[in-house]
Amino acid sequence: MKIAIRFAALVMMAALIAACAREVTPEPAPPEPTPPPAPERPVETDRLDPRDFTDARNLDNPDSLLSQRTVYFEFDRSNVRAQFRPIIDAHAAYLRANPSARVILEGHADERGSREYNLGLGERRGNSVLELLRAANVPARQIEVVSYGEERPVCRESNEDCWQRNRRTEIVYTAR
Amino acid sequence: MVKALACLALLLPALAWGQLRIEIVDGVEGAMPIAVAPFAWESSQPEPATGVSEIVSANLRRSGLFDPMAERDMIDRPTRPPEVRFGTWRLLRVDHLVIGRIVDGPDGWGHEIEYHLLDVHTGRILLSQALPVAPGDLRFGAHRVSDAVYEALIGIPGAFATRIAYVVVTGLSTDDEVFELVVADADGHNPQTIVRNSQPILSPAWAPDGRRLAYVSFATGRSNIVVQDLFTGQMRTVSSERGINGAPAWSPDGSQLAVSLSRGGSPDIWVINVDGEARPRQLTHHWSINTEPAWAPDGRHIFFTSDRAGRPQVYRMDRSGDNVTRVTFDGRYNARPSLANNDRFLAVVHSDGDNDFRIAIHDRETERLRVLSDGRLDESPSFAPNGSMILYAARQQGRGVLAAVSADGRVRQRLVVSEGDVREPAWSPIIR
């Protein structure tokens, strides 16, 4: 039985080594770049207003509040601080204007304390953002809260710098 | 990303088979001197590399309560009671002696460990047993011998013939993290990965039969409670409500799980039937966080964590959810209660401030709380089934390790796995 597993592992390994090895073989030279087609419409109508929170392109526009999707919290707290309200308002505007858009509010905690309690804390942080979105008339069906507790840190050191980056709610678009 | 994961998978088998190494940090002064003489191999089958007596000796040493003599210091190697010259052992300042032989089992099936525990001072035989062992089970047989010796001399059952479950996380960032739920013998040998996922796994809990584990899995992207049979590998999702599905705890009869569900808006304690029949029953009704239920051994009460008074503290209620009373008052933070074989002592995660989280024992009789560990981020205490030790998770140089401390705080062990972050330990019940 163990031999069979070992053998299977060997076969898998060989396949994987082949797959990994392929990655390092040189890619064929890219084709000559073709000049971009001339815009069909005048450029002005295409100019993006970063304060237009109904426009999906602003989700990826670093100048727009819509590109900011993380709300940070104080230790053992779940109230949204004033500086994060504009971000939430921007996403509320987007969600109202785009009824097919969906978000998951991922609640997170820092590593201190027990893991299951931190699941509860993460959910509270997700719910705080949920309540503000709901208060801004975003229909409930567009939002879901999922708490990851302390299981998904963005920073892995045990100090306050890291902890404050981990205490967060991430607004994750599952449909734009 | 997929390719990166596949390449990472190359490394995995080695990691999964890597073993926990147990280091004894602190032992007890005045541990009992004992000698476990090499057991004679009188079986027709090939002799394993590690002898039964070596395993027994290592187990007794690890408990911190015994100081077994090194084999090279033994002048004599008796294997049957008439061969024992007690004077020799007295001169070696040994109080007790364990001797034995390994013979073929009846009809050549497996083995039999025939062993004796002797009192060197009185010359009396304290224990004699012929223990049948299934093929391939000699290590476990050695653990059972250790349990019997421990019980004969300490007065409470040993917890060597038990297993531990824990979560190992490998990978450097969220994108390539791998979570594995591992089950190993209590001495760290024989680790087996029972489930592997790129999403978090936490809160493993042993069924009273020692055959099944309940745990929280994020495999679907949301928390679910899964029950897995260790023998068949069969997995069943027993709770996938909207919101949190967390903190499973088996009722002592193994028919129910107390869990924390937030389907009502905030985490509350609920009870579900393991077989999935009958609707979940809600025990707490409070806007606060209510989680980490732990059953009293008699099944009549449930302890749990709640921050209804502002900060997390441990509470106790009837299994009906009535008569909620606060249990812990010392310090700002007491959570994740774990019980052993009685409901007098609770192991908890304890903090006085916001930065140091330690394992403590709360004594419900004296209402005293005693801090046992000295880390900064200690968590997930799990009592050995005999109440002698508490296994917990700690951080050491930026990575997760397991540690154990005796209930009186005198014996300390560190369990080191070769690779990855180790966390969420759970000690099995005594396996019969």
Give an overview in words:
The complex is a heterodimer of chains A (176) and B (432). Chain A is an alpha+beta fold. Chain A contains 5 helices and 4 strands, in the order ααβαβαβαβ. In chain A, α3 (85-97) crosses α4 (115-135). Residues 1-33 and 38-44 of chain A have low confidence and may be disordered. Chain B has helices at residues 2-9, 12-17, 52-62, 86-91, 138-154; strands at 20-26, 32-36, 40-42, 66-68, 96-104, 111-119, 125-133, 163-170, 178-185, 192-197, 201-206, 212-217, 224-229, 235-239, 245-250, 256-261, 268-273, 281-282, 290-295, 301-306, 313-318, 325-326, 333-339, 345-351, 358-363, 368-371, 379-383, 389-396, 399-406, 412-417, 421-427. The longest helix of chain B is centred in the middle third of the chain and has 17 residues, at 138-154. Chain A binds chain B through residues 9, 12-13, 16-17, 19-20, 23, 75-76, 111-117, 119-121, 123-124, 145-149, 151-154, 156-158, and chain B through 3, 6-7, 9-10, 13, 174, 200, 202-203, 218, 221-223, 243-244, 246-247, 260, 262, 266-267, 289, 291-292, 305, 307, 311-312, 333, 335-336, 349, 351, 354-355, 357, 376-377, 379-380, 395, 398, 424.
